[in-house]
Amino acid sequence: EFANPSVQLINCLAIEVFFYTGQENFNPWKLFAEPFITADAQIPRANFLKYLNAMGLLFSALPEFYWTQLFERMNQIFEHPLLLRCSPTDIMDLLNFRERFCTHTENMVCCFVAVVHSIWLHGSISHLQPFLVLIQTQLLQTIKNENQLLLAFQLIGPFLQRIQTESTKLLLEFVIVPYDLIARVDTHQQSFVNVDTIANFLYHIKYIVVGDAIRDRIETVVSNLHCEKLRSRLHFLCAKTDVSSSMHVQGSATGATPMSTTVNDAPNSNASSHGQRTASTSSMSMQYTAGSVPLQPYGASPQNFQLTTAMTTAMGSDGTPQQR
Hints:
Blueprint: H1 5-20, H2 28-37, H3 48-61, H4 64-67, H5 69-78, H6 81-85, H7 91-94, H8 97-102, H9 108-122, H10 125-142, H11 146-156, H12 160-166, H13 168-174, H14 177-186, H15 195-210, H16 215-223, H17 228-233, E1 257-264, E2 277-278, E3 283-289, E4 313-315, E5 321-323
Antiparallel strand pairs: 1-3, 2-3, 4-5
Helix pairs in contact: 1-3, 3-9, 10-14, 11-14, 12-13, 14-16
């Protein structure tokens, strides 16, 4: 019934956890997950990432009762002094677990991000849905600065495309969250430092994940932003993604300029042959207004044609003079 020995081992561990549940001083979260958040020295550093992955596998196999403490811990991390005191210019470095781990400078915030990603990576949509509820009920009131905003983006960002493939309804609820958080933070601070990072994330959501499904909400939030720099960066979020291509022809004051374009689906259009491209199913005609240069009839000889010739003498390669 098990695909491989690892899956069987995870199920055996889950059964052991069930057996010890209810006994005194037995807390699976504090036993298996908390040591990674606090970077407990008892975990061998050489196997830290393997243990972290195994922890995610275990909690993804356990019922919700066992991993709800994740969201209690999340509330504490969003108000952690290390996060609140960090300069916005250094926040992305603070949240970068990979770089911090390689340099032995990991902290509680980036380790918590790694724990959450490990559980959600192996879990299902049911592991992500409580995060949406938590934001809507509690974190929306807690998040007031740019550092907290970027932490929220860091937590949910890697999983948006997965939500897109598994639950469109849940996706539409999730993609509204970043704009609600930005609107909330914008009321508590005058400007944003990581403008490009925020803009890149939101443009990715629109053009890769959701398209124009929440365009009305985007327009409302962007137009009401107090931060001029961020508002200008997000200006094109309000543009439609399915804009049809158009032809822009710009002529000189004495040249021909297109005034209007019409497209006819019928193949037998009565439009003029000038500027017309005919296909088997459609035709396009363009109307021009001529400037000071009149259009010559087809086949007519050009007027005021003048040919000027000149002759020069030069030495050839064999030393003899040649005329050109």
